[in-house]
Amino acid sequence: MEQVAFSVQVRLVADLARAQAYYRDVLGCEVTDWWAVRDDFALGFKLMQADRPEDVSPNRPGKGQSVPWDTYAYVDTHSELDALYRTLAERGARIIQTPSVTEADWGVWKEFAIADPDGYAIAFGSGKKE
Predict the structure, then answer these.
(1) Cα(101)–Cα(94) distance, rounded to whole angstroms?
(2) Which domains does the chain carry?
(3) Is the C-alpha dihedral spanning 90, 95, 98, 104 positive or negative?
(4) pTM to 2 decimal places
(5) If DSSP states are collapsed to H, E and C, what string results for the chain?
(6) What does the pLDDT look like over 30-72, one tens digit per residue?
């Protein structure tokens, strides 16, 4: 069976140059005219200039969700998640969800979320304490 090598999310943005700078300088992506990717396409986006600002449409919260997510990325361990949080905060990321912990019978989940200049939410989470 054929396998998909990677995927990217398409983002309509109000200001392409501003979005490219954010994804490069804050999120740490390699940015070209076509892509904004990091970690060998583990996190990938295709940024596209919107025709009109009102065409930019981040997700609304789902049922029971206080912070809506447009992207959810997984990080291996809680300590790596904490390091990523510190790096993104130092680079000026707009934090919309500070690191929070959820405990369940299956383990401990930790996550946080940032928003890009257009309001798209990118969440990061980890289920491994170490």
Answers:
(1) 20
(2) 9-50+67-126 (3.10.180.10)
(3) negative
(4) 0.92
(5) CCCCCCCCEEEEECCHHHHHHHHHHCCCCEECCCCEEECCCCEEEEEEECCCHHHCCCCCCCCCCCCCCCEEEECCCHHHHHHHHHHHHHCCCEEEEEEEEEEECCEEEEEEEEECCCCCEEEEEECCCC
(6) 999 989 999 988 999 999 999 999 999 999 999 998 899 999 9
End-to-end C-alpha distance for the chain, whole angstroms: 35
| Residue (of 119, 103, 99) closest to 111 by Cα position | 99
In the numeric block, the tokens 């919309």 are attached to 96
CB 24 within 8 A of CB 16: no
Structure-block tokens of residue 7: 């995927």
